[in-house]
Amino acid sequence: MDEEIPATFASLGLSEDVLGALDALGYEEPTPIQVQAIPLLLSGRDVIGRAATGTGKTAAFALPLVERIDPQDRSVQALIMAPTRELAVQVAEAAHRYGAPRRVSVLAVYGGQAIDRQIRELRRGVNVVVGTPGRLLDHIRRRTLDLGKVRYVVLDEADEMLDMGFIEDIEAILTETPMERQTALFSATFPPRIADLAERHMRSPERIMVQTRQLETPLVRQVAYTVARPYKLEALGRVLDLEAPASAIVFCRTRVEVDELTESLGCAGIAPALHGGLNQTQRDRVMKRFRDGTADLLIATDVAARGLDVEHVSHVINYDIPQTPEVYVHRIGRTGRAGREGTAITLVQPREHGLLRAIERLVRQKIENARIPTIADLRTRRLELLRTAIHETLVEDEFDVYRDAVAPRRSSGTCWTSPPPPPSWLPTRPAAKSRTRPRTSRSSSRGSEGATMATRTADLAGVGTASRVLAGAGNMTRLFISLGRRRGVRPGDIVGAIAGEAGLAGNSIGAIEIADQFTLVEVPESAADDVIRALSRSRIKGIAATVRRAKDD
């Protein structure tokens, strides 16, 4: 049997202007509710849609709406009712983005905002009004809102509006609109009151429903962190630092968000992007980096990750909560494969907890709600990783690289006065001292927020200190080298490269700190520029590296 070809936004009958807006926003593929609702609404039919929050229903009704608006007519042509001010603002912002190429004007009206400003905007003329029933009725009574030319009405979250006692307000508002209007009603549930409302105010509506079947999830640890959107990047950095994933896929909702996050994380070269905007050659190149372990983080959209088959993924991180439970299951199915343990982490904004609960109900599993790691948590975790690294060195009996680096200092007496007997010559006491990770100060396309958050890139790149060799220091400066443990780098490789390429004596090299993704090494300030130039022209373990002065916050 032939495989069903997924629908595209272009196949739904949307215009080039609206398709351009969706492309600019990074939308790649319509959700099931959009596939069913958009063609019906574009044809002028009344529609009842049964779909939960997070299924993409805003675009399902807003995209046909902006298609049917005449931007030259400054009267109110479309009315959208929502139960809360938060949802009203969210829907208004979405409708504005979709209708921007056609110059469709949108206004949100709700309680808690100065009504005078709303009145001024209404008098100036708007095409679409999105509001809560109480404030809409207030404007109607003040005669500041004329619904006589409305051709398109949407009731969003109808069951919630009825539960909040808005039924009489909704009835009063609907009587102010023309009888020949087109009406769309969306509701997560369909109690008898919704059926009665539809019977009185809709014309032979088409009924569509997104199936909410029970879903099984892989046996992976599932954790959610509640975090406001401005702090998501910082939260991601801390979570990655705490979890220390061997490899992870970070999912975003759109390719624009993928590119923004990649820009914020990519200054250490650790986070390739995978989305529908890449050609096949670019996709293959990205996947090769991820499969062979060159890149430990992959930032991807759901469409790009479809069919992704990589067995060694230790973590899946939902930077944006999935739009549907089915997508959630698809995402977390990328980890915990081939009998391995896996972890699924979701960053949830406070207003998205309802969607998280819906996912829990459908997957029949409680998702642990954890707090964002503190600096103290990260310090403890780094010390644990350092102890593990030291233990591995002792067990594997790989002391030569340390002995070569420490011997000159021990013989000169600059490290300690008398050398302890083997194997306790390993400088465990100095090595156990924690040092703050380096931070970059590169700005990003996210504005001032991005400039601040991007300073944690080194924390994202190097999850856990691996090894350090300490030596005496004079006027030293610290260099950043973009290779670490994951590329098999050891202290001897760093000492050998610097000594061989820059001609710097091994006993002049100071502390070497090797993390998973990068290395920090102290060299005399007077030789720093020569070392940077020499290493930038050469290779370490056969790999070209980025070398620069480390920047501390």
List the helices and strands and how they pair.
Blueprint: H1 16-25, H2 32-42, E1 47-50, H3 57-68, E2 78-81, H4 85-99, E3 106-109, H5 115-124, E4 128-131, H6 133-142, E5 152-155, H7 158-163, H8 167-174, E6 182-187, H9 192-201, E7 206-209, E8 221-226, H10 232-243, E9 248-251, H11 255-265, E10 273-274, H12 280-291, E11 297-300, H13 302-305, E12 315-318, H14 325-332, E13 343-348, H15 353-363, E14 368-370, H16 375-396, H17 400-412, H18 428-431, H19 447-453, H20 457-461, E15 465-469, E16 476-481, H21 491-502, E17 512-515, E18 519-524, H22 528-537, E19 539-540, E20 543-544, E21 547-549
Parallel strand pairs: 1-6, 1-7, 2-4, 2-5, 3-4, 5-6, 8-13, 8-14, 9-11, 9-12, 10-11, 12-13
Antiparallel strand pairs: 15-17, 16-18, 16-21, 17-18, 19-20
Helix pairs in contact: 2-3, 3-4, 6-8, 17-21, 21-22
Q: Could you describe the 3D structure shown?
A:
With 553 residues, the protein is α/β, with parallel strands linked by helices. It folds into 3 domains: 10-209, 3-Layer(aba) Sandwich (Rossmann fold), CATH 3.40.50; 221-372, Rossmann fold, CATH 3.40.50; 376-549, RRM (RNA recognition motif) domain (Alpha-Beta Plaits). Helices cover 40% and strands 16% of the residues. It is built from 22 helices and 21 strands. The strands form 4 sheets. A 7-stranded parallel beta sheet has the order 3-4-2-5-6-1-7, with helices on both faces. It has a 7-stranded parallel beta sheet with strand order 10-11-9-12-13-8-14, with helices on both faces. The longest helix has 22 residues, at 375-396. Mean pLDDT is 78; it is low at 413-473.
